[in-house]
Specification:
By secondary structure, the chain is an alpha/beta fold. The chain contains nine helices and 16 strands. The strands form two sheets. Strands 1, 2, 6, 7, 8, 9, 15 and 16 form an eight-stranded mixed beta sheet that branches. Strand 8 and strand 9 form a beta hairpin. Helix 1 packs parallel to helix 3 and helix 1 runs parallel beside helix 7. The longest helix is centred in the C-terminal third of the chain and has 17 residues. Bound molecules: flavin-adenine dinucleotide. Flavin-adenine dinucleotide binds next to helix 1, strand 2, strand 10, strand 14 and helix 7. The site of flavin-adenine dinucleotide has 41 residues, from helix 1, strand 2, strand 10, strand 14 and helix 7.
């Protein structure tokens, strides 16, 4: 049986950030993930300046695709508003693998199934023993399921369903576009260009409200792609995939007896826009800090709404733009690494 002080289930942004901080403090940590990295993660890949700061990323040195937007284009019915604020796009396939590698933490590909208590620690699948356990396994995290679900049930009205596809596409419009409530969608759809000829498009909506209105997310996907065909992405071909996760509701118990839940496992994606990368990263930092400093695990500074962050970026635009403007907005033009989304 392999032993470590801290075992992290899940190597996404929450898990790799916790691992990074724990390694920096010299803690004996092991990350388990059922996937081999780089792995596919359905996500628009939009990140905020807070994410860049929390991860201490030097944008100039980031070795993969990263695009900086000086504005978001928000569409609401007939209203079309450019919102001046600095945001970025990355490809999750690259970003997550890079973060995990940068953490310097040992990694094993392993699908966690059984978690049992063992004195003041845990035994995982009779193969791993640890004193501390961090659940960073996303919506279906086994640490959440085994230790937290009953104490912290998820609210079905906060479940969102999504459809998205990331494709190679020679886009010409380098802005990020968001359409709210189009055709009665209880959510929004997006067009997010990535550096060097990649594009992510998708729709997301509250599952219960879709059902109540007799709607299907696929109808909204059809509306979106028809609109893109006529305007922003003519000739693009899609084969979308679906994923579901939870927006932030009440977050009651997130740690108990040397176990923690972080990111989507704790249901931390923002209530307004479903932004989950930032909250995953911040909660990973806080879980590591709780272990290293013996402090309570607190999520008070993990934002529950994206609007505040966008407003901060709008008002701090002049200064941040100068910090982040080094990355060019390049139009499409073919991928550097030539990997297709479906082959990943
Ligand atoms: C379509 C879509 C678009 C999105 N767009 C954005 C966006 O643009 N910006 C944003 O901020 N957020 C976005 N989100 C939300 C964001 O993707 C998540 O909130 C974020 O990935 C959460 O990170 P995490 O580390 O908690 O979980 P994840 O990134 O899901 O990582 C969890 C990891 O745990 C592993 N795992 C799961 N079960 C097990 C197991 N049993 N054993 C071992 N390993 C396991 C998985 O393989 C995975 O690697 C989007 C989500 C969707 C679905």
């Amino acid at each position: 049986m392999r032993s470590c002080d801290v075992l992290i289930v899940g190597g996404g942004p929450a898990g790799s950030t916790a691992a990074w901080q724990l390694r920096r403090a010299g803690v004996d940590v092991l990350v388990l993930d059922r996937e081999r990295f780089p792995r596919l993660k359905l996500c628009a890949g939009w990140i905020t300046p807070e994410v860049v700061r929390d991860l201490d990323i030097d944008l100039e040195a980031y070795p993969h695709r990263l695009l900086t937007f000086p504005r978001l284009r928000v569409h609401l019915g007939r209203l079309h508003v450019p919102v001046a604020c600095v945001q970025h796009s990355i490809r999750r396939f690259e970003f997550d693998a890079w973060l995990l590698e940068r953490s310097g933490a040992p990694f094993e590909q392993h699908n966690v199934r059984r978690i049992a208590r063992d004195g003041d620690g845990f035994v995982i699948d009779d193969a791993f023993r640890c004193r501390w356990l961090i659940g960073a396994g996303g919506t279906r995290c086994p640490v959440y399921r085994t230790l937290f679900r009953e104490l912290n049930p998820r609210a079905s009205e906060l479940q969102i369903v999504t459809l998205e596809h990331e494709i190679q596409y020679d886009w010409q419009d380098s802005d990020c576009h968001l359409w709210f409530f189009a055709h009665g969608l209880p959510g929004y759809s997006w067009y997010v260009p990535k550096e060097q000829g990649w594009l992510n498009v998708g729709v997301g909506g509250i599952a219960e409200r879709l059902k109540r209105g007799g709607q299907d997310i696929r109808q909204h996907w059809a509306h979106l792609t028809a609109m893109l065909e006529g305007r922003l992405a003519p000739g693009a071909r899609y084969d979308p995939s679906g994923y579901s996760y939870y927006l932030r509701g009440r977050v009651d118990v997130v740690s108990r007896d040397h176990a923690f839940i972080t990111g989507d496992a704790a249901g931390l994606a923002t209530r307004d826009l479903g932004e989950g990368i930032g909250p995953a990263i911040r909660s990973g930092l806080r879980a590591a800090q709780a272990i290293v400093a013996g402090e309570p695990y607190r999520l008070e500074d993990v934002t529950g709404a994206s609007v505040g962050s966008i407003a901060r970026s709008m008002f701090g635009r002049a200064t941040r733009a100068s910090v982040f403007s080094g990355r060019r907005q390049t139009p499409g033009g073919g991928p550097a690494h030539g990997l297709r989304h479906r082959d990943q």
